[in-house]
């Protein structure tokens, strides 16, 4: 077990969250609450964004990590702490430990994004790369804890972690007293559980909606079964909520206090991330954009004022590029087509001229002349185009057909 029997039996109360709030004074930022006119128009009620992507280390994780480590006994601090993470929890533990003068060791997968590895080291942790996935890093961290006596800091399955994350809920009530609905991403459940404890204790009328990625949604079947149920192979780009099994401690609180847990698709996550960047001018990782994805997919389902918690902004630049293109494609603003043309001087210029007539912006051109599939006088061209929406995509494809080209996809 990652926590003692006493911890497992402990619940989390409003007093715990208030105590965590005092402890975090001067450590965690009271993050901004920004209104979104675009989302407000979609929902038909005020929508505000709680910007935990602007928190120190780039996510809410610092809150829980600091409260957990600050609560250790002197002899536990002396033994150091250990954690496993691909990103946000790693950085939260690293900074919290440095602030408290505790040595931290963080196990990360070998394939973790380099910016996240570098940031974790810069915050003061000793980073050890182990395994290809987080589960392998987690096993190594737990073995390290057994061998060395270091205290294992779980990312979500501990009352102190949940109390720290619950301080987000207290800030929401202070910044938006009239809130009617809070939407928050759910992985293991620590953030949703903490917010629910704080908010429901003070405002039981506020509706709390958790959001999971469709391919990593362990909570709906777990809530239906009345116990945590494991997923064999969770799959989503939103690694911040890619958790195969709910934590025991947060599961009980989510089941009691969270009104609904819904799911969103990868297309919806991509579109939400793109919207945050373009309309709100906020860099948000896919997990942090999940509440926005829920608002976009079911705008009629949320009573306002609505607060959407942007839980983190630590997105790998390589992933950001892929997600933005995916989001543009989902909105009909990005089109990839393949076609064949006669391999003669000026053929490619004629093709590009046909595209300019319909105002399609060419982002990339791949021109293949030597391929066994092609005839002696043929060439194949793959085009990546920026378009203005689904109707424009159809117009571009029709213009190519009218010009005599066979569009293959």
TrEMBL record:
<keyword id="KW-0663">Pyridoxal phosphate</keyword>
<feature type="domain" description="ACT">
    <location>
        <begin position="336"/>
        <end position="409"/>
    </location>
</feature>
<dbReference type="InterPro" id="IPR001926">
    <property type="entry name" value="TrpB-like_PALP"/>
</dbReference>
<dbReference type="GO" id="GO:0004794">
    <property type="term" value="F:threonine deaminase activity"/>
</dbReference>
<protein>
    <recommendedName>
        <fullName>L-threonine dehydratase catabolic TdcB</fullName>
        <ecNumber>4.3.1.19</ecNumber>
    </recommendedName>
</protein>
<dbReference type="InterPro" id="IPR002912">
    <property type="entry name" value="ACT_dom"/>
</dbReference>
<comment type="similarity">
    <text>Belongs to the serine/threonine dehydratase family.</text>
</comment>
<keyword id="KW-0456">Lyase</keyword>
<comment type="subunit">
    <text>In the native structure, TdcB is in a dimeric form, whereas in the TdcB-AMP complex, it exists in a tetrameric form (dimer of dimers).</text>
</comment>
<dbReference type="InterPro" id="IPR005789">
    <property type="entry name" value="Thr_deHydtase_catblc"/>
</dbReference>
<dbReference type="InterPro" id="IPR000634">
    <property type="entry name" value="Ser/Thr_deHydtase_PyrdxlP-BS"/>
</dbReference>
<dbReference type="InterPro" id="IPR044561">
    <property type="entry name" value="ACT_ThrD-II-like"/>
</dbReference>
<dbReference type="Pfam" id="PF00291">
    <property type="entry name" value="PALP"/>
</dbReference>
<dbReference type="InterPro" id="IPR036052">
    <property type="entry name" value="TrpB-like_PALP_sf"/>
</dbReference>
<dbReference type="InterPro" id="IPR050147">
    <property type="entry name" value="Ser/Thr_Dehydratase"/>
</dbReference>
<comment type="pathway">
    <text>Amino-acid degradation; L-threonine degradation via propanoate pathway; propanoate from L-threonine: step 1/4.</text>
</comment>
<keyword id="KW-0021">Allosteric enzyme</keyword>
């Amino acid at each position: 077990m990652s926590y003692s029997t006493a911890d497992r039996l402990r619940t989390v109360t409003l007093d715990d969250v208030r105590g965590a709030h005092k402890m975090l004074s001067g450590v965690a930022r009271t993050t901004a609450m920004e209104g979104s006119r675009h989302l407000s128009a979609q929902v038909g009620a005020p929508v505000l964004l709680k910007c935990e992507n602007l928190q120190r280390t780039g996510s809410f994780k610092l809150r829980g990590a600091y409260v957990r480590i600050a609560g250790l006994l002197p002899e536990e601090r002396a033994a150091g702490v250990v954690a496993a993470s691909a990103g946000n929890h790693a950085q939260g533990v690293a900074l919290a430990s440095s602030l408290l003068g505790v040595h931290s060791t963080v196990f990360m997968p070998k394939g973790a994004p380099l910016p996240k590895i570098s940031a974790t080291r810069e915050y003061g942790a000793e980073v050890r790369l182990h395994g290809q996935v987080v589960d392998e890093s987690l096993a190594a961290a737990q073995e390290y804890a057994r061998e060395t006596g270091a205290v294992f800091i779980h990312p979500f399955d501990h009352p102190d972690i949940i109390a720290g994350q619950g301080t987000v809920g207290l800030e929401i009530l202070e910044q938006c007293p009239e809130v009617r609905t809070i939407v928050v991403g759910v992985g293991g459940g620590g953030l949703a559980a903490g917010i629910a404890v704080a908010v429901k204790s003070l405002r039981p009328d506020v509706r709390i909606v958790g959001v999971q990625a469709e391919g990593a949604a362990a909570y709906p079947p777990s809530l239906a079964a009345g116990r945590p149920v494991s997923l064999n192979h969770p799959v989503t780009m939103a690694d911040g909520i890619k958790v195969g099994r709910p934590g025991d401690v947060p599961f009980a609180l989510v089941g009691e206090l969270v009104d609904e847990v819904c799911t969103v698709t990868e297309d919806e996550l991509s579109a939400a991330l793109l919207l945050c960047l373009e309309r709100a001018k906020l860099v948000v990782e896919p997990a942090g954009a999940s509440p926005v994805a829920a608002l976009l997919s079911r705008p009629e389902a949320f009573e306002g004022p609505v607060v959407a918690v942007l839980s983190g902004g630590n997105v790998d630049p390589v992933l950001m590029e892929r997600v933005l293109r995916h989001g543009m494609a989902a909105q009909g603003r990005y089109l990839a087509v393949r076609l064949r043309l006669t391999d003669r001087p000026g053929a490619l210029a004629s093709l590009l001229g046909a595209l300019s007539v319909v105002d399609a912006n060419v982002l990339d051109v791949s021109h293949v002349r030597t391929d066994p599939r092609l005839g002696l006088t043929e060439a194949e061209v793959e085009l990546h185009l920026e378009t203005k929406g689904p109707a424009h995509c159809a117009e571009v494809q029709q213009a190519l057909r009218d010009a005599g080209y066979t569009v293959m996809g």
